[in-house]
Amino acid sequence: MKYACLISLGCAKNLVDSETMVKRLVDMGYQMTQEAREADVIVVNTCGFLESAVQEAIEVVLEAARYKVEGKCSTLVVAGCMVQRYGKKLLKELPEVDIFLGTSHYQALETAVESQRGARPGRLWIGRPGQILDRAPGRVISTGAHSAYVKIAEGCDNSCSFCIIPKLRGPLRSRLEADILAEARRLSAEGIKEINLIAQDTTAFGMDRNEPEALADLLEKLEEIPGTLAWIRLLYCYPDRIGDRLLNVMAHSAKIVPYLDIPLQHCAAGVLTAMGRPAHSAEGIIEKIRSILPAISLRTSLMVGFPGETRAQFKSLLEFMQRVRFDHAGVFVFSPEAGTRAARLGGRPGKRTSASRRAALLELQREISREKLEELVGRTLPVLIEGPHPESDLLLCGRLPTQAPEVDGCVIITDGAGEAGEMKPVRITASHDYDLEGIVAGPGCA
Q: Are the CB atoms for 334 and 304 separated by under 8 Å?
């Protein structure tokens, strides 16, 4: 029996690529294992968005390379964004690696592995990103039997000055609607309860085909899919593309959860302009969303320490967060990535200042989250059971419709039974900074 191990790093979009590579490995006759020591082939799918992610990837690759000596590994494959970013440089820097696959060559995994048996094996498989996920060869879902990510587009046409993603992933390429619907039908038929729609910019879906309402159209058709599918969630939504029709489709849906992930990055016009993003009225966008979807749960990502960010601009961001009161927020310090326009900008706040600003925003968000969650105590809400709590088999863990997988909090179930994938009514009995506690209040939800 031949064994393969795949280690996936980075974001959910990368995870989908990893799942397609797992399917390819299975089709090649490999049995998948989580133990790298047992694997004949080890694949590391890397992130290359930030230098810190690159350093993590290199550490993981070097650890995997140990098993070429201490284990069974005969072929070490490194794939993904780090390969696309550094290309030929990696051939010398990582001689332990047999195959490098860029983001344009995931589909070449079989050919690349087979080439190792030839007289002239190929090490570097890279090109301009232009591929797009289709129905073949499918993928092996790694997020459990109840939840899955569905990538609806690849690449990005935005020109944010701090971001290297367009260079790593190429221009926007929307999947065919028919392919997405076919995938969603298959997932629902297999028992999936929740799909999370993802892309570099989900709200840009269809823009490359001059179809500005393509996302709203897609959501209306996803709503009609039979089977177990109960929750549809939108992640990575560019703020300026959240239109009235999209919001109204969400408002009249029984399956699209009241949740939007909107990476605003900042609220100060000067900072947004320097970022290469529209100097929109962030508060106006939020007001419009809440006027149509009053019960919406909003997640955002914010960046501090951007070149030129003044004390006054940071204060405006802090006050903006106090007024808007997001349900969930991630805060990041600007990283000057080589190859981006922002890396060449001057006036960057010091590391200590940037860290202090990040800490202040996170503390404010912690307070807001605690206050919002306290309001849910005593209510009975639908919870998607994910399985035993990672810290105790005596507890269950689940999520509300307003909690996205991996990035948001969870519901800790202290009493009552449930299996992974079941929908249960849970009475909320206590709240914490980001998590809730509750007890199962009755049989499963429809």
A: yes
Q: Are 429 and 437 in contact (CB under 8 A)?
A: yes
Q: Are strands 194-198 and 147-151 parallel, antiparallel or unpaired?
A: parallel
As a whole number of angstroms, the distance between CA 22 and CA 7 comes to 10
Backbone Cα Rg of the chain: 22
- Distance, in Å, from the CA atom of 178 to the CA atom of 155, rounded to the nearest integer, reads 19
Q: Do domains 147-374 and 380-440 have the same CATH topology?
A: no
CATH number of 2-125: 3.40.50.12160
Are the CB atoms for 19 and 13 separated by under 8 Å? no
Closest C-alpha to 439, from 430, 426, 421: 426
Q: Is the pTM of this model over 0.85?
A: yes
Within 10 Å of residue 296's Cβ, how many Cβ atoms?
18
Question: What are the residue boundaries of the structural domains of the chain, listed by start?
Answer: 2-125, 147-374, 380-440
For residue range 316-326, list pLDDT tens digits in order.
Answer: 999 999 999 99
Condensed to tens digits (0 to 9), the pLDDT of residues 187-213 reads 999 999 999 999 999 999 999 999 999
Looking at the structure, give the CATH architecture of the domain made up of residues 380-440. Answer: Beta Barrel (2.40)
Are 80 and 101 a contacting pair, CB within 8 Å? yes
Letter for the amino acid at 54?
V
